[in-house]
Amino acid sequence: MFVRSLSTAAVKAAFASTRLASSPHALIHHARCYASAITVNGFSQLKPTPYGQPLAASHAHLIRTEETTPGIPQEEYDRRRRELMESLPDDSLVVCVAGQVKYMSGRESYKFRQSSDFWYLTGFDEPEAAVILEKRPSTRRGYYMRMFSTGTDTAKEKWDGAKTSPEDVVQYFDADEAEHISTFPSVLRSLASTASYVYLDVPSHSKRSRAVSPRSLLKYLSPSGGLSRSEYDNLLESLSSSKRKALAPEVGRLRAIKSKYEHNVMRQAAEISGRAHNKVMRFTEPGMSEHAVAAHFEYLCAREGSQRPAYVPVVASGPNGLIIHYTPNNQLIADGEMVLIDAACEYNGYASDITRTFPANGTFTPEQATLYNAVLTVQKQLIALCTEASCMSLMQIHRESCNMMRKELERIGFRFPLGAGSVDTLYPHLVGHPVGIDLHESSHIDKNEPLKAGMVITIEPGVYVPPYIEFPKAFHNIGIRIEDEVLVGKEQPDILSVTAPKEIADIEGSCKGLLGLTPF
Known about the structure:
The chain is built from 15 helices and 25 strands. The chain is α+β, with helices and mostly antiparallel strands. It folds into 2 domains: 67-253, Creatine Amidinohydrolase, Chain A, domain 1 (3-Layer(aba) Sandwich), CATH 3.40.350.10; 257-512, Creatine Amidinohydrolase.
């Protein structure tokens, strides 16, 4: 166990600055991993890193000294934990566990992505980890934080690289104590036995799976699997159903309103994705495969620092655009077709979400332009409602979007007599959703509550015209969706995805290279 000590932290900080200032050829022995101090473009680095994720000492080009994760300072993570604990009753305990490594086949794993709530509370990006927060109102922070992780392992480091040591967990992640994950069950049992409430959640399961029992919960919360029968029974008893409370709704309430630091990171994510949309319009040509366009989009985002796509991209050409979640991306783009691209990146822990629709050959036909302008008119009117002053909820905005869409479609020749095709047939999805660390932010956010300044939502009306006789033939097999990320303001909305063109003149200019952008 490593416990916070001001003197220790000061010594470690001084040692870190000294070693980085030393000769770039000097070898540093740290956490049983040798790292060389190397300066590139004025930035100090440690290669290989002695930590389990980028930190200021090893990745100065990505993260500042005061930050825990890129763009998010240590004080922001402390604020989140403080606000969470202040909202809970006295004698409360919060237990949050890290995500699990997921496997594609056999021992071949996917790239690890941290559990969203665990990331929100800690910024720690390693699996097999947990945090316990104990409410202590009389202390300076109002809580006591214990972190559990695998720590350093010389043998594994040769294969997978270093993990963060307990000392560094205390220093860089602001924990009061850091222990090996094997001690987690016994510490939890001890603390839970005296707590009045224990707030925790389990990893998400599909709706088809059985309800999670305390016994299966404890199997997950005990990575070491080393509990004796008596210890196991005692831990079960300490987590009785009367004490257990759901953590996700409490964290979801905090995650709904984004801080200024989150706004900045999300703006960067949206700008990266928006520029990729712009360049992909220039890149796309008739005869090209949808998968080539999808690959180019992902490449453009990765080149700018995106860690992963926020979701599987949709590149739907022609009638494929009628399938809202079309992801095969395996057909050829024909001349004269519209191309609907719903794609965006995840950047420094935050998702973006943008959709654009454009002509494959760079020029809208009159019919395509007419339908596109109808959707765009609705979308722009809806974005204007995304303010706290409007006192509207996301569901109210959706209902307004249906009314607006009906009027716009009737204006261009659609008819909706009783018993014929309805607006729901053409526009079958919700107008938008909250976005943040998750693409579809916490399901615990109430879509019927009025929007608040600081929320980030998508506004994405769409029209998908099947070849039905009741709809104008000129618009058959055209799918159009226009989606932006919007930061809700007090009086004015702020469109984070503004770098992605959506006016017809701008789209055609991007497609034809008239705006000075290259495909790469």
